[in-house]
Amino acid sequence: MDTHRTALIAAVASRRVFRVTELEQLGVSQSTSYRRAQPGGPWTRLLPGIVLVESGPPTADDLMQAALLRAGPQALITGFRAAKLHGLKMPPDDADVHVLVPHGKKLQNYPGFRFERTKRLPDPVIVETTPVAPLTRAVMDAARTWQPRAVTEELIVEAVQHTRSCHPDRLAEEMERGCRRGTRMPRKVLRSITADIRSLPEFRAHELLQRSGLPEPQWNIRLFSGTGEFIACPDAWFDDVGLAVEIDSVQFHFSKSDYARTLRRNNRYSTHGVSSVQVLPRRLRAEPEAVLEEIRRAHGSAAARARPDVVAYGPGSTGGRARAG
Fold this sequence. Notes:
single chain; alpha+beta; four-stranded mixed β-sheet; three-stranded antiparallel β-sheet
């Protein structure tokens, strides 16, 4: 077996994506590489001068490695793909491969690949051998690529609620430091979000209640009776009248244990005189005005009765004894 063939077998055993010039050094002529990478051939062309030495389809890792080979040694992955490598679940599997390159290097974009020049090239974070942007940068780079509002909301809410590094203030700071193009939607989302909100439905409820005319509720506080007995941790709490709002998904209640836990929670509300409203997440988008009216009416009804003797602890609460009616 000749030296080139031995080297090629060894290289292919550990990698799938190569520059055509690399393969030439391993004994495969450029004409052979391009012929094999034609449609229907045994290899797959991913980018100019970059081939997958398989018939495909390429994996997410193949696409990112192709982009990095095309962009050069200082490049790193950002946007949705980087956010997914950092552990976020929301980014779609078919998102473009978004690559940051030094400002002096200009590369043409291709379908599925976005090469962005930047003067603020961050130090890479190595995730599964791939150099990626820090999470705050990756999230904001993804958010400013003119995504639909629902996609932007889901991305930012998940980042804030499931990672320690993405506090809303840090995301806003990253947005202000970067390119202003495409920031209108993420700017609106960040103005609405708070670190006390734990899910996308809660975020949508928060936005809805901001135009309700009602006092600002507290989010995810803990309620205790006047004698110190734990009652519940409502999604939203109107402390002025003692009204709890719970956003309960149908999926959550598929489990018998979760359904039983919800019943026990509702019974504790009733026992301690706490008014509550239950809202399905899908209605926050499908029937927002109807939901808003239900909460307004519940708030009015709660205001017309004696306020329960409960204590609220948590963000935005005083932690003291609530006024008894």
